[in-house]
Amino acid sequence: MPTPAAHTVRHFREVLLWPVQLMPISPHGGVETYWKNLELPSEDNPWRKVEDVFRLDSSEFEERHYKEFVAFLPYVQRFIYGESHRNSPHDEDDTLGESAIKRFRRYDVFGLRLVLREGDAPLILEVKNVELLFFDDIHVAFLKVELSAHHLPFEQACDLLYRFGRAYPTDWDSEGNGKHNVHQAAWLDGDGKVLATSDSHQQAKFLNYTREHRSPGITAHWDFLLRPLVLDPSQAVGELRYRQIEYHRMPLMAFLAVENPRTLTREDWLQLGLVATLHPDDTLPAHDHDVAEFESRYCYDRFWSDTDTGTNTRFVCTGRAFIVVGDAQSPYFHDESRGILSQFRHQYLLLFLIVHFHRAALLVFSDRMVDAVHDLDIRQPQSIYHFRRRIYASFEALLRFTHRYWFHELSERPHIQALYRLSSKHLGNDPLYREVKEELRDMSQYLDSNSQRQQSTTVVRLTVVTVFSMIGTVTTGLLGMNLIAAADAPLSLRSLYFIGTILLTTLFMVLAILKSKQLSDVMDVLADDQKTLGNRLATMGAAWRRKY
Asked: For the chain, which terminus, N or C, has the lower number of CB atoms within 10 Å?
């Protein structure tokens, strides 16, 4: 698909947000504070905690911080930024003034060298920041990587967005190179020294890993970036372990400042907007709904006037991709302090983070329920007990998630709210939430009904034992009527009578408990007044021999 040479991306930004599921540290489960393991610096820990912006000196709190803060509704502000400081803590590990998001950043990665396809010249991008984000009460973390470049051909920018940001290769060509990922990727330090290089061409490594662990492996450069977190099925040593949550393609945001974006053709917009799923070399599927209804489904054109004098900024949101395209000749569009670029890196980034956090958290809840059901063995009382504890813990966690993190209104600003709804809709968050909630409700109802069934069974058994214990009660009563005149007998003989009566009564009660189900069936048969006495007596034997 040829693209005019005039289509050059003067300024390019890409943000990747990779959600991973954190595995419990404690065998007892409960609320985990994973970030505590990264707060202490060490040789194996390159992460450093990012200081809360509201605790900075007044000279460092800038206008952009204020504009970012007021863009959201109050309950969203409390989620992202925390609450005002007070003297009384509401939790041992989380004071009222802290945000629910814990940020860590590494400062050793400055650049990225990419070879998009075999034989291409290397492309150097600047790494703006690499962060790891944790959330209170939720077993989810996000790896965030922000890249920057200048003067990229439009076609190369699309190819970069499509190929970079894949956790592992999905296929290989005849020469052993990954079909959809970049040919080579290398993280660089401040001096240009290589820190880690991709290994997607090592087909045997990924095949053996999947065969051994029944899970796809991770390419070396992404594995390096997450350290000291290690992939859970692997043999690598590490206290913080993670699993992939879903698709190997990381959700992406892109900012493209193009000279005269009005000259982009519909094919250009399709290639860019569907970059997360459509290979740049593939022919556009004209009859596909995503292509036929592209503008109505994925384009937000509130700021797209398509005139020489008006604003020409277009937002394309497909759920997995959030792309902003605007005029490179507009100073406001690429202004990093006040303009669209500033909003892209802050307000829109938080919007995109929240919708993917919602999806990742719900998928983790679903995974935990599947794991609980997998471990359930109804023949083992201990297994049922552990299952009950895990389901109730998941129900409590979903309740905290619902009241603290789940919301449909993000901002009073129409464009932010519209983009939030569009992103959430394409990710299917609302149906997923209802599905997870319904699954938890079904499991909770199963546990309640099972508990009621056990209680009913216990009541029936106690009733049967009580009925048949009347025999022993009458017997001991007769003893009290001097049926055996032993009042003047020696103490040893009276003690012998007493102990014998206790043993016989206890034995009778134990037998009644052991045969309580059969006795209950016999009582039901005898109480059936719709049958003749002969039929009842004939049926008693079958009821007694019934096996459970």
From this structure: C
pLDDT for 254-277, tens place per residue? Answer: 999 998 899 999 999 999 999 988
The closest alpha carbon to 219, from 175, 173, 252, 182, belongs to: 182
Average pLDDT over residues 531-540: 69
Task: From 107, 115, 7, select the one nearest 49 (Cα to Cα).
Answer: 107
Secondary structure class of 155 (helix, strand, coil)? helix
Residue of 275, 317, 251 lying closest to 160 (CA atoms): 275
DSSP secondary structure of 517-548: HHHHHHHHHHT-TTS-HHHHHHHHHHHHH---
pTM: 0.82
Q: DSSP string spanning 281-319?
A: TSPP-TTSHHHHTHHHHHEE-TTB--SSSS-B-EEEE-S
What does the DSSP 8-state code read for residue 413?
S
Radius of gyration of the chain (CA): 34
- Which amino acid makes up residue 463? T
Residue 64, sorted as left (phi over 0), alpha (psi -120 to 50) or beta, turns out to be alpha
C-beta of residue 364 within 8 angstroms of C-beta of residue 21: yes
What's the pLDDT tens digit per position in 465-509?
676 666 666 666 655 555 566 667 787 777 787 787 778 777 777
> Long-range contacts of range 538-545, CB-CB < 8 Å, 24 or more positions apart?
543/518, 544/518
Q: Give me the count of residues in the chain.
A: 548
Is residue 1 scored above 50 in pLDDT?
no
d(CA 125, CA 114): 8
Report the distance separating Cα 99 and Cα 102, nearest Å: 7
Q: Residue 121: what pLDDT?
A: 94
Q: Which residues of 193-206 are buried (b: 16+ CB within 10 A; e: fewer)?
A: eebbebbbbbeeeb
Q: What is the DSSP string of 50-119?
A: PPPGGGS-TTT--HHHHHHHHTS-HHHHHHHH-----SS-SSSS--TTS-SEEEEEE-S--EEEEE-STT
Mean pLDDT of 25-36: 71
